[in-house]
Specification:
Number of strands: 0
CATH architecture of the largest domain: Up-down Bundle
CATH superfamily of the largest domain: MFS general substrate transporter like domains
Strand content: under 5%
Order of helices and strands: HHHHHHHHHHHHHHHHHHHHHH
Radius of gyration: 25 Å
Low-confidence stretches: 1-11, 519-526
Mean pLDDT: 79
Helix content: over 70%
Structural class: mainly alpha
Largest sheet: none
Distance between the termini: 14 Å
Number of domains: 4
CATH class of the largest domain: Mainly Alpha
Shape: globular
Number of helices: 22
């Protein structure tokens, strides 16, 4: 398989206005899709109360979106060939509006989950297609600008979601977390009509479709996502649901593997991974995706459980990591055209590692500003890692393979996120239990510090209530809460340490990356 793409001789050296409008449309669609992953997190308690769902049932509002999104991402390239890029994206945008309205008007859990699954299917299709538009419409000399814009949007979407969702919920209504998609989608539709030329569907692609691979992909990836998202809450294989879904996921993976040998054009082209440069990108983005989504989960959890922040306040802390993205955006296209990708990615990974190590010294008194420097360094690391990886994934394949490559790339990033969240969820649960038990064992009846703390707390409560029995009970409760808090702080510090080590392990893979030649003539290979 060729590692590089040959540029058609007829492709212009400079993109036209229509090309840039198409790029803007693809980027806006990707922003909407990534934003909707996290925008409901802030509003989840209010949504659950409105539709009468329990906390466990409410998790399906997020899981439904993720399971459908991860299925549609690798299918997007095939669907684009069937319907044509313009018709496919216009249809996805219209359906996304309808499903968003359904979510905003929902009064039952069933309607909400159906709407979220629909949002995931239609919104998820816009992520790889946006990347494909940039790769196919821009000449190599302008590819860094387009990919920087796209990468910035994909990074900022999950960061903006909690802040925007929290503000809308507090000041207007949780329904506006979904209604806000209406004006955005109308703008997207206008850009698509202006920027993309009319195209014709290829219905023959339906007859020649890899239906075995489509069935395996749909069953395997959706089941795997549910297992990863719900496994910890269901106590993993103690749950019959998790056992059956794991078996279904395994069966789906077997069907995908078989389709690689039986289908004329597999719906998921795993043969792209034979290219070591592309494979190294996928492995790095899998791990970095796991760390990226884990950090987005960990910091708000710490601020909520330890510092008492609400979702909107935590969201503002998270936005600090977006500041380097805006500061670096003007210079990144130039860096991407001149600096070796291996140097950029390794530097970015080291920034990520340093930011994780800064967060291993947390205490029960840590608040939002204690994350300031780690967030800034992490934000710089994200840009230096994701921007070159975005372009390296596209530069490693031909133009004809760009759609399939974008699907596998984005699927790997999202799958890495699900795996990362599942792993750290299990680690947090088990390590927290261990630390609680360890601290309790040290606070025996012979512990002078423990007895002094109990006596001081009891005296304080007795002064307020005049009831010594009640005062002792409250003092014991306070001590138990403090033990839980300290155990949680230790656990979070350990998780940040593990994430840093995982990133260090990616550095050797970065040596396999290849920097594309952006200054090559249009007809030359790159």
């Amino acid at each position: 398989m060729a590692e590089t793409a040959a540029m058609p001789a007829s492709h212009p050296e400079r993109a036209s206005a229509a090309d840039w409008i198409a790029v803007a449309a693809g980027s806006l669609g990707a922003l909407m899709a990534t934003l909707d992953i996290s925008i409901t997190n802030s509003a989840l308690p209010q949504i659950q109360g409105e539709i009468g769902a329990t906390g466990t049932e409410g998790t399906w509002i997020s899981t439904g979106y993720l399971m459908s999104e991860i299925v549609i991402i690798p299918l997007a390239a095939w669907l684009t060939r069937v319907f044509g890029l313009r018709k496919f994206l216009l249809g996805a945008a219209v359906l996304f509006i309808l499903f968003s309205m359904m979510c905003g008007l929902s009064h039952t859990l069933t309607a909400m989950i159906i709407g979220r699954i629909g949002q995931g299917l239609t919104g998820g299709a816009m992520i790889p297609t946006g990347q494909t538009i940039i790769r196919s419409r821009l000449p190599m000399s302008q590819l860094p600008i387009g990919m920087t814009l796209f990468g910035l949007i994909v990074l900022l979407g999950p960061l903006l979601g909690p802040v925007l969702g929290g503000w809308l919920t507090e000041n207007i209504s949780w329904s506006w977390c979904f209604f806000i998609n209406l004006p955005v989608c109308i703008g997207l539709i206008a850009l698509l009509l202006l920027g993309l030329p009319p195209d014709h569907p290829q219905w023959d692609a339906l007859k020649q479709a890899d239906w075995l691979g489509i069935a395996g992909l749909s069953a395997g990836l959706s089941s795997l996502t549910v297992v990863l998202e719900e496994g910890q809450r269901e106590r993993w294989f103690e749950s019959n649901m998790i056992v059956w879904l794991s078996l279904l996921s395994l069966a789906g993976m077997v069907l995908i593997a078989i389709s690689q040998f039986t289908a004329k054009r597999p719906v998921m082209r795993l043969s792209l991974l034979r290219n070591p440069r592309y494979a190294s990108v996928i492995l790095i983005v899998l791990v970095v995706g796991a760390v990226f989504y884990s950090v987005i989960y960990l910091i708000p959890q710490f601020l909520g459980l330890i510092a008492g922040y609400n979702a909107e306040q935590s969201g503002w802390v998270m936005l600090v990591s977006g500041v380097p993205a805006f500061l670096m955006m003007p210079m990144l296209p130039r860096l991407l055209g001149k600096v070796d990708f291996r140097i950029m990615v390794i530097t970015g990974l080291m920034c990520f590692v340093v930011s994780c190590m800064l967060d291993i010294h947390l205490t029960a008194q840590s608040v939002g500003h204690d994350f300031f420097w780690s967030q800034l360094i992490r934000g710089a690391g994200q840009m230096l890692v994701f921007m070159p990886l975005n372009q390296a994934s596209m530069a490693a394949v031909t133009r004809e393979e760009a759609g399939d490559a974008a699907g596998v790339y984005n699927m790997a990033r999202n799958l890495g996120g699900s795996i990362g969240l599942a792993v750290i969820g299990t680690v947090i649960d088990r390590r927290n239990t261990f630390h609680v038990a360890t601290i309790r064992e040290s606070l025996t009846a012979n512990s002078v510090l423990g007895q002094d703390r109990l006596a001081a707390n009891a005296a304080g409560w007795f002064a307020r209530t005049g009831d010594m029995a009640y005062a002792k009970m409250r003092a014991l409760g306070q001590l138990a809460a403090q033990i839980q808090q300290q155990a949680m702080v230790i656990t979070f510090s350990e998780v940040f340490y593990v994430l840093g080590i995982a990133l260090l392990c990616c550095i050797p893979l970065a040596l396999l990356l290849k920097t594309p030649s952006y200054g090559a003539p249009a007809a030359a290979g790159h």
